[in-house]
Structures are given as C-alpha cells and as structure tokens.
C-alpha cells in the first residue's frame, strides 16, 4: 500500500469512529449545534472514501486514453469534498432556522461536551499530520482531507465554548446562534475548496509551482541557456507538466540542441521534488540577445555581454525573448 493510500485510510477510519461518537453526543443531548457538528462528520467519511478512490486512480500509470496520467482526478476529488461541505453547511443553516421557530429541549450538555472535546482533539492531530504529509507528498487530496479535519476540529472547539456559555449563563438560544455560525463557517470552507478545485480543473496557472521551477532555473542555469520564456507549469497529482521555449546558440547542430534540451530536462527533474514532464521548444538566438548572452568565444557575437537578466515569474512566463535592455 502506498504512503498516500495509508494516509487516506487513516483519515477514513478516523472519520467513521468520530462520526459515531458525535451522533452519540447528539442523541444524548438533543443539541442543534452538536447535530451540526455530527452532520459535517458524514461529509468527512464520504469525502475520505472518495479520496481513497482518487488516490488509487491518480497512482495509476499513463495509458493510451490518459497520456498525461490520472493525477487530475485529485482536483475532482477536492471538488466533491468541497461540494459536500457546502451542502452540509446549507443543511445545518436550514435546520438552525427551523429550530428558531420550533425549538427542541437540550439535556446532558456536560456529557456531550466531553465527547465532542475528544473528537476535536483527535481531528486536530490527524488533520495536522495529513496536511504536513500532503504538502511533502505534493498530494492535493491528502492536504484537502487534512484541512477538512482541521476545520472540523476548530468548529468543534467553538461548539464547546458555546455550550459552556449556554450551560452556565442559562441561555438556550445560544445553541441555535452557535449552530448558525458553524453553518456559515462550514459553507465558507466548502467554497474555498470548490474554488481551489475549479482552478485546477480549468488549468489556472500554478504560481507556487512556477516559482519553484524559476528558482531552480536560476540556480542551475548554463551559459548557453541564453533565454527561457513562455514558461507554463501545471501540477497534476504528484507530477508537474512544464512547457517552455529555450533559446540556444543558432549555430548548434541538431545533436547539440538535443543534448542541451536533455540536460535541461535532467537537471530540473533531479532538483524538483515532483516528477516532471517537459515539452521544450528550442529557439535560435538572434542578434538582439547578445547583450545578455553569457556564451564565451561566440563566433557570431554582434554585441558585448552587458548584464545578466535574472528570470522571474513575471518575465519568464511571457511569450517573448528578453530583448529590451534595462
């Protein structure tokens, strides 16, 4: 079993156990706020189950029908999880508004709080661990699952504070008010996950991945890498897909061009934490490149080297060579 599968299995088992505990707390108290917390736990379990399948699918090798691999399913997994969180928040708000007009008696508040405290501590610990491991493994699904558990833990802590106020201040309306606040918080959390998944499904530029690539390019650049531009980076699961134009001396023959592109590919793949697939378009240099070209003893140089242009996320992503002198 892969590391990702073990992590999502941990999330799934934890979610099932904590969901049962929260519903026990709801049945012994009748608290609307505790019901809100328990309802979100159903989402945790279903989302973790879908995450389990998406991790399995994302790990499958490329095939004829999926030449770019299966990593993009992680964005769909996060979309499902975000959508279910959003639906859970809506259900919680509807039930809260209903109970404003038709209140239900609340009992055994103290026992319910102890149970919720246990679930919140477990969720916080497991969520932190999943987020840390998700970032290190470059798994959007694991990271989203961990974030979801942390959101659940924070909302549970808020629930406990509200129940304490209700118990000692003798204010029964606090239960409904707290439930409404939790519902809004859960809705917003679902919205953020939906936004992130839609960005990935629409191939929105991954700024973090671009910065990572640009850093390594500047660190390991060679003299005959005269110019890199039109850089585009997308992360699908644990793989990155990188397109760019690489300007090389125009007197290189085809074998030299091939060797330099292979070197470019190998250097970045050795340095980047994610496995990368490159599509590199080779451009010939032009006289306008000479003022920032570092190639020594160039037989066709028309202008002396004047300055090194440091690549950054702004100039390297444009579809043009760096002709303009500063």
In short:
Residues 207-285 form the Cation efflux protein cytoplasmic domain. This protein is mainly alpha-helical.
Description:
- By secondary structure, the chain is mostly helical.
- It folds into two domains: 199 residues, Alpha-lytic protease prodomain-like (Up-down Bundle), CATH 1.20.1510.10; 86 residues, Alpha-Beta Plaits (2-Layer Sandwich).
- 62% of the residues lie in helices and 9% in strands.
- It contains eight helices and three strands; from the N terminus they run αααααααββαβ.
- A three-stranded mixed beta sheet has the order 1-2-3.
- Helix 2 runs antiparallel to helix 3 and helix 2 packs antiparallel against helix 5.
- The longest helix has 30 residues.
- The radius of gyration is 27 Å and the shape is elongated.
- The model has no long low-confidence stretch (mean pLDDT 81).
Quick one: overall form?
A: elongated
Largest sheet: 3 strands, mixed
- Would you state the CATH class of the largest domain? Mainly Alpha
Sequence stretches where pLDDT stays below 50 over 5 or more residues: none
The tally of structural domains comes to: 2
According to CATH, the homologous superfamily of the largest domain is Cation efflux protein transmembrane domain
Order of helices and strands: HHHHHHHEEHE
Q: Could you report the average pLDDT, rounded to the nearest whole number?
A: 81
What percent of the residues sit in helical stretches (DSSP H or I)? 55-70%
CATH topology of the largest domain: Alpha-lytic protease prodomain-like
How many H/I helical runs? Answer: 8
Family: Belongs to the cation diffusion facilitator (CDF) transporter (TC 2.A.4) family.
Pfam families: Cation_efflux, ZT_dimer
Domain Cation efflux protein transmembrane: 9-202
Domain Cation efflux protein cytoplasmic: 207-285
């Amino acid at each position: 079993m892969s590391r990702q599968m073990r992590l999502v299995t941990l999330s799934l088992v934890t979610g099932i156990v904590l969901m049962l505990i929260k519903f026990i707390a709801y049945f012994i108290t009748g608290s609307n706020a505790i019901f809100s917390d328990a309802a979100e736990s159903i989402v945790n379990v279903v989302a973790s189950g879908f995450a389990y399948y998406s991790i399995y699918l994302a790990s499958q090798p490329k095939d004829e029908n999926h030449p770019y691999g299966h990593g993009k399913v992680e964005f769909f997994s996060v979309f499902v999880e975000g959508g279910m969180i959003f639906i859970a928040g809506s259900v919680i708000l509807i039930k809260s508004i209903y109970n404003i007009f038709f209140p239900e008696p609340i009992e055994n508040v103290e026992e319910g709080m102890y149970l919720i405290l246990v679930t919140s501590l477990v969720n916080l610990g497991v969520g932190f661990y999943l987020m840390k491991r998700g970032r290190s493994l470059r798994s959007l699904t694991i990271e989203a699952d961990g974030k979801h558990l942390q959101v659940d833990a924070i909302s549970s802590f808020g629930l406990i504070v509200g129940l304490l106020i209700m118990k000692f201040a003798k204010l029964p309306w606090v239960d409904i008010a707290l439930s409404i606040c939790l519902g809004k918080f859960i809705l917003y959390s679902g919205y953020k996950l939906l936004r992130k998944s839609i960005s990935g499904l629409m191939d929105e530029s991954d700024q973090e991945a671009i910065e990572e690539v640009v850093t390594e390019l500047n660190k390991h650049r060679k003299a005959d890498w005269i110019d890199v531009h039109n850089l585009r980076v997308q992360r699908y699961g644990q793989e990155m897909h990188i397109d760019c134009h690489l300007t090389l001396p125009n007197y290189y023959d085809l074998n030299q061009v091939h060797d330099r592109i292979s070197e470019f590919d190998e250097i970045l793949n050795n340095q980047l934490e994610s496995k990368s697939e490159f599509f590199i378009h080779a451009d010939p240099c032009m006289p306008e490149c000479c003022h920032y070209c570092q190639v020594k003893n160039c037989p066709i140089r028309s202008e002396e080297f004047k300055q090194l242009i440091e690549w950054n996320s702004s100039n390297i992503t444009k579809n043009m060579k760096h002709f303009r002198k500063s």
